[in-house]
Amino acid sequence: MSQTVDTAPTAEATPSGKKKPALSEGKRAERRLGLMLCAPAAFVMVAVTGWPIVYSVWLSLQRYDLRFPDQREFVGLSNYVAVLTDGYWWTAFGITSLITVVSVVIELVLGMLLALVMHRTLVGRGLVRTVSLIPYGIVTVVAAFSWYYAWFPDTGYLTSMLGLEAPLTQQIPSLLIIILAEVWKTTPFMALLLMAGLALVPEDLLKAASMDGATGWQRFTKVIVPVMKPAILVALLFRTLDAFRIFDNIFVLTKGANDTSSVSMQAYNNLIRGLNLGIGSTMSVLIFLAVAIIAFLFIKLFGASAPGNDAGGRR
Amino acid sequence: MAIITGGTTGRKAKWAFIDIVIVLYALIPVVWTLSLSFKTTESQTDKNFFPSEWTFQNYRDIFTTDEFIRALINSIGIAIISTLIAVVLGTMAAYAIARLDFPGKQALVGVSLLIAMFPQVSLVSPLFEMERNLGLFDTWAGLIFPYITFALPLAIYTLSAFFREIPWELEKAAKMDGATPAQAFRRVIAPLAAPGVFTTAILVFIFCWNDFLFAISLTSTSASRTVPAALSFFTGASQFEVPTGSISAAAVVITIPIIVFVLFFQRRIVAGLTSGAVKG
Amino acid sequence: MGSTRTGGRGLSRLRGVAAGAALLVAAPTIAACGSDSGTEINVYLSPEQNFQTVVDRCNAKADGRYKIVYNKLPRDADGQREQMVRRLAAGDTGLDVLGLDVTWVPEFAEAKWLAEFTGENKSDAEQGVLKGPLQTAMWNGKLYGATKNTNVQLLWYDDRITQTPPETWSDMMEMSRQLKSEGKPYRILFTGAQYEGLVVQYNTLVASAGGEILSKDGKKVVMDKGAVDALQTLKDVSTSGLTDPSMPNAQEQQVQQAFEAADSQAAFELNWPYVYAAIQAANPERAKHLKWARYPGINGESKATIGGFNLAVSALSTHKPEAFDAVQCLRGPESQKFQAICDGVPPTIESIYSDESPIEPCPAATTADKPTMATAYPMKETILEALKDPAVRPLTVVYQNLSTITSKVLSPPADIDPQGTADDLRDGLQKALESKGVLP
User: What is the pLDDT of residue C31?
Assistant: First the structure.
């Protein structure tokens, strides 16, 4: 396909007086192709979530309790003030942040180790890969239930084995149990993404590095990690977004007792149990904002590794 | 596969040991669920890791009515269709984002992240109303559309991370050899993107398979109810008893398709396909 | 669309009805035109093992005028409420009969989702019904539901350990202390997790102490001396060292299992009557010695909180006359007796308790004996006594908020400080009544 450069004067004058460069035929074709390829995905996403998200934000600006439909009114930001000055909210926020940070860090380390094993093992590679993914493949509620059964003194084997007494009735032990359940369940998610990222590291680079005398650790930090940055970003980003919205494990294990409740549980209590659409939507928006800030930080940290941030690796 | 082959027995043994540790770590809680599914109701609370009394009754129970079978069929169908569509749409969009320059690229990336970030619990009710008005409530399509929507952000991000790493020179070389863009994509890019595509497929499938929130809210009969939702309809002998035995049995049964799916796809996530492709 | 594979292995009528119902419910637009095939009454109720038999019987009685379809709701109460609320709030006309937990009637009625029982429907629904359960079906002086079954907690004990059951909490703690010093099983078991079960316990204690949490009309917070005394009792027992260490995390099933365990350390269990049937299979040895008594009081006889289900008719239903008719049959004396014996749920109609006549063996029965109320429900006298002097949970539109706040404030029970906790409750409940503030 030949690319002709169109030099016809189709440039528009910008306010500063400079002329924008004319779009070449090829460039226009590229733009069309790009838009066409993205259109179906964009259409589906916007069609399904456009209205619900807008409606949720709209609700958060209203005082709207389903049981008192006559008292519905627009109240601006007072819902936000109510939530942000609530002690329960900040406790839940703190606990959620704690669980998120601890479990994501552990999962990153364990996930990396697991990815290395899944990638490099000489024995039973298919078996290890499949077996490692089973925890992620089990329905969360059932896994949480089986942990509950295991840790509950009258029905399970773990408490007597470790000599503990009712760990689920105290805050710190139950937080540790919750983190353990989370880590066990979702490390495979990280590991899978990291392993696929490992698959991109060219063997020759590693061979060259080792021939230059680099140690295993140096090969890891100087060759493997930089190439894997995009994969690490995706894994970290999505895992953290999900970790912040933890619900099932806490609900089954402690029901949020002893201040182990998360922000998602509180949003659920207000929105679904309390039928307070105003406050519930406010909490959802706040959770979204918290998660957005985290995402923003990650992307800033990883800079150019974010998608769409450069011209497609065309150097 | 450019792997250092022919390790000594010592190295093989080391890897075997590491493998065993990982298998134990992953499987001990699973074996616990398995053993719960084989325990009789009397021995449910005997605190033993392995059942002292074995029974297949729990497995028989879940198959007595065809509700569970219907749920399995629904799950399999909905998950496969959603995964297929999400991966195809995601690949197209990811390729465009990673390779091409067009207006609205940043916006699309931002919007898809926004969708992944917004708590789903508050989107369920408006979505329910939309589907009711469109007649999609309690249908396969009613679940497939949300699943695709919420799987696309992860798919797009993962796949564009992969497309980025594929050297642009390969496409240019293919074009200079006379291939059309479509051919260049199929013959050169697609095989190299395989690890990313199959990873995405696995993750999307597991997401659709295990989703509970949409399954319970957007269905009301066994016409479209999937397995995770069906689990919450299992009855115990009374309203206060959770039927642990049958739920564990059901959980074991529904993990099997996942194992099959992963086993099938994971061998495609292989290393070093790009090595040697570009000289110098 | 959904697969229509049915396997072809001995299609039971059940499967046919279920498949047909599924298709019909899933395609409301098709069903809208050409509904000469018969009126369908959709009943939404929690999954009960033998309710389908009741439905079948009522369909036979309906004689073609309508067909009742049993749509199951999730097993947990919160899940059931969520499903129904979502659809009713969206104006779904596909629900006809709703199975409501006793605490939901004010909420649903106020939101105008329930049709009132008037005239003959009302007198039928009220006939012979015990006062306590009937109260839970009323709101603002109007009847919105027909009682289907009730439930009340009893004190369960092992007669090898305890010869005479305690009548008050202080007696019970005294006996427990005595047993502990003798090295025998001594623990007092009750549901102390942060959920509705804890609110039920507290409500019983408040009523037994003669106090009130809310005013009778449910519009004001009272929290009087009786309520504070109840807090004191709850605190005392939780800090006495006489409870199971996992009590703050225990729900009904955990309490039941702790009493059934082979090495159980428990002497007293406070739980619903279902434990009687459950222990027969789980621990036949202990089952032989299981005895029951009324829930211990504080200053005398207790007033135990009642549970149960009411059947209501949706205000959005397009077949109200048939729906009321169906309700009449589904919760009528015959159905209640059948479900009492085969499902273990106490009936609300008083005459059934003294009914001696046997019925056909239950569907899942292993013997051909014809059961009666006496054989299947030996504790019915105690239950009836308790039902005649019951405590009803506060009847208010914002009951869910109340429950969430109360369970949060009272958990863990060992940390209760009677005056301080009472103030917290007063504050939180007042805000909940005005729909202000944020739930924990």
Answer: 41
- How many structural domains does chain A have? 2
Structural domain contains residue A306: no
- Interface contact C400-A273, CB threshold 8 A: yes
Q: Which residues of B touch C (CB under 8 A)?
A: 41-42, 44-46, 65-67, 69-70, 73-74, 77, 124-125, 128-129, 132, 135, 138-140, 216-217, 220-224, 232-242
pLDDT computed for residue C157 by the predictor: 95
Are residues C412 and A169, on separate chains, in Cβ contact within 8 Å? yes
Report yes or no on A101 lying in a domain: yes
C249 touches chain A (CB under 8 A): yes
pLDDT tens string A210-258 = 888 878 788 888 888 888 888 888 889 889 988 998 998 998 898 888 8
Complex ipTM? 0.83
Beta carbons of B101 and A248 less than 8 Å apart = no
In this complex, which chains have at least 3 CB pairs below 8 Å with chain C?
A: A, B
Q: Which among A264, A288, A307 is the end of a domain?
A: A264
**Contact C379/A at CB under 8 A:** no
CA distance B43 to chain A (A): 10
Cα-flanking dihedrals φ and ψ of residue A144, to 5°? -60, -40
Please compute, for residue C30, the number of CA atoms within 13 A of its CA located in the half-sphere on the CB side. 9
Give the residues across from C45 on adjacent strands: C72
**Which fold is adopted by the domain B66-266?**
MetI-like fold (1.10.3720)
B242–chain C nearest CA distance, Å: 7
Q: What is the CATH number of domain C38-151+306-381?
A: 3.40.190.10
Residue A310 pLDDT: 56
Q: How far apart are the first and last CA of chain C?
A: 41
Q: Which residues of C touch A276 (CB under 8 A)?
A: 435, 439
A221: DSSP letter: I
What letter represents residue C71's amino acid? Answer: N
Choose among A65, A155, A279: nearest Cβ to C438. Answer: A279
What is the pTM (predicted TM-score) of this model?
0.86
Q: Is A166 left (phi over 0), alpha (psi -120 to 50) or beta?
A: left
Q: Do the Cβ atoms of B237 and C28 come within 8 Å?
A: no
Per the document, the length of chain A is 315
Of the pLDDT bands very low, low, confident and very high (cuts 50, 70, 90), residue C324 is very high
What is the full per-residue pLDDT of chain B (280 aa) written as tens digits? 444 555 578 888 888 888 888 888 888 888 888 888 888 877 777 777 888 788 888 898 888 888 899 999 999 999 999 999 999 999 999 988 988 888 888 888 888 988 888 998 889 989 998 998 999 999 999 999 999 999 999 999 888 888 887 777 877 787 788 777 777 777 777 777 787 888 899 989 999 998 988 998 999 888 999 998 998 888 877 888 888 888 889 988 988 888 888 888 877 776 544 444 444 4
Phi and psi at C291, nearest 5°, equal -125, 165
Q: What DSSP character marks residue A310?
A: S
Q: What is the CATH number of domain C155-304+398-433?
A: 3.40.190.10
The domain in which residue A190 lies consists of 91-264
Return the closest-CA partner of residue B50 out of B36, B61, B29.
Answer: B36
Question: Cβ A313–B167 below 8 Å, yes or no?
Answer: yes
Q: Judge: B238–C277 Cβ closer than 8 Å, yes or no.
A: yes
CB-based contact B106 A280, cutoff 8 Å: no
CB contact under 8 A, B27 and A138: no
DSSP E strands in C93-153: the ranges are 97-101, 138-139, 142-143, 146-152
How far apart are the C-alpha atoms of C208 and C305, rounded to whole Å? 10
Please identify among residues 188-207 of chain B the ones whose CB lies closer than 8 Å to any CB of chain A.
195-196, 199, 202-203, 206
| pLDDT of amino acid C27 | 45
Query: How many pairs of residues across A and C have Cβ atoms under 8 Å apart?
Result: 93
Taken in order A173, A177, A178, A179, the sign of the CA dihedral is positive
